[in-house]
Write a structure and sequence with these properties.
43% helix; binds zinc ion; 4-stranded antiparallel sheet; alpha+beta; 5-stranded mixed sheet; 60s Ribosomal Protein L30, Chain: A; Nucleotidyltransferase, domain 5; Translation, Eukaryotic Peptide Chain Release Factor Subunit 1, Chain A; 381 residues; 16 strands; single chain
């Protein structure tokens, strides 16, 4: 199934077995960066690396057998799927001993990873979900209002109201409609319609908790809505689209996604600007890979900034998981460190493990001047 919600992750995380371990498998299947052959090769390598890792573990044979079976099932499932697969990532959770099997199609690439543990390793899934904004789009004219939910590139109608412009004639119109009272009548209907629309928006916000609100309406309606909206909602308004309630969902989606991309770019630019100005002030920031991993190791990082696709080899202590650029022995545990192909990737994971925000910055950006990586800190020791 497609990964769409926190509930799916929570349900998955609930699975636990008394007698067996679970295999959590993640494969980057992005066709933007790789051809099918490369993906197949990375699958093969990932499985065989995991098999030899498993051989060395001293789990009891019942557990081990179940895990080996997981790897076998995953490999054959992926080999069948991959030729026709067009998502950015594939993850499988399997516990053969309990006959447990769950597949998620991912709209963002995970890093290739296999984890054997008591329960499903769900962090990569929640990292993917975190990157998505839930958008509500309200399109409104004098008669109709419609609400759409946009999430992970999909649009769904979640509500609509109609105001019948002739429905109140009988109540008010004992004296008939002179042009003045008709105008008054229409204006009161307009007010009611707007009031209803803003109440409904707030209701949907409480129910769905969207991050951004986009509105498709004329100037006049925007002003009226703005004055009716709850202050929470006013903060959520991030864009105005050119759309009418009668427009197709596809048309609305296309416009909303364009605005979303712009907003994300602006956000990204802003965060790099803030970072640079903190550096110039000597504030709570570090830059460059060496300083950044040092701060990560110390738990000082609040927000980690990494340049997309920037990678660099490094080393990792297998015991305490601290990160290093070139230390062959962990100064903390005196254990030999192991080489890792991408220390940036390890930093992202370390950041998530330590509850840091991770922001991925598209190159080129001003972050390039500071070694392509940096962090805002909680404190500086
Ligand atoms: Zn160590």
């Amino acid at each position: 199934m497609k990964l769409l919600s926190q509930e799916q992750i929570e349900k998955l995380a609930d699975f636990v077995s008394e007698d067996y371990f679970t295999t959590s498998f993640f494969l980057d299947t992005s066709l933007d960066r790789m051809v099918k052959k490369e993906i197949e090769l990375s699958l093969k390598n990932l499985i065989s690396r995991s098999q030899s890792r498993l051989e060395k573990r001293n789990f009891d044979s019942k557990k081990k057998d179940s895990l080996f079976k997981d790897l076998e099932k995953i490999q054959s499932y992926c080999s069948q799927k991959l030729p026709f697969y067009d998502y950015y990532g594939l993850s499988v959770f399997s516990c053969s001993g309990e006959d447990f099997w769950e597949v998620f199609n991912l709209v963002k690439s995970p890093r290739n990873l296999v984890v054997f543990d008591r329960n499903p390793y769900v962090r990569p899934l929640s990292a993917i979900l975190e990157q998505y904004h839930r958008i509500c789009v309200l399109v409104i004219d004098r008669k109709t209002a419609k609400w759409y939910d946009i999430y992970m590139g999909e649009i769904n109608l979640i509500g609509s109201i109609e105001t019948n412009l002739s429905q109140h004639k009988g109540e008010k119109g004992r004296e008939g409609f002179g042009s003045q009272s008709l105008e008054k009548h229409l204006s009161s209907l307009f007010q009611t319609h707007m009031k209803k629309a803003s109440n409904k928006t707030f209701e949907l916000f409480k129910k769905n908790g969207f991050d951004w609100l986009f509105i498709g309406a004329s100037e006049e309606y925007l002003k009226e809505l703005g004055s009716n909206f709850h202050p929470y909602l006013k903060e959520k308004i991030k864009g105005v689209i050119k759309a009418k309630p009668s427009d197709s969902p596809d048309k609305i989606l296309k416009q909303a996604l364009t605005i979303k991309e712009d907003l994300k770019k602006k956000e990204e630019k802003q965060i790099v600007e803030d970072f640079e100005s903190e550096i110039k002030k000597g504030g709570l920031v570090v830059s460059g890979i060496r300083n950044t991993i040092r701060s990560l190791n110390k738990g000082e990082v609040k927000t980690l900034l990494v340049t997309r696709k920037f990678s660099k080899p490094g080393r990792l202590c297998p015991k305490c998981r601290l990160l290093y650029l070139d230390e062959t022995e962990c100064p903390a545990c005196k254990v030999k460190t192991i080489p890792v192909i991408d220390i940036i990737d390890e930093s992202v994971e370390a950041g998530m493990n330590r509850n840091c925000q991770v922001r991925h910055i598209n190159p080129p950006s001003r972050l390039d001047r500071y070694g392509g990586i940096g962090a805002f800190l909680r404190f500086k020791s």
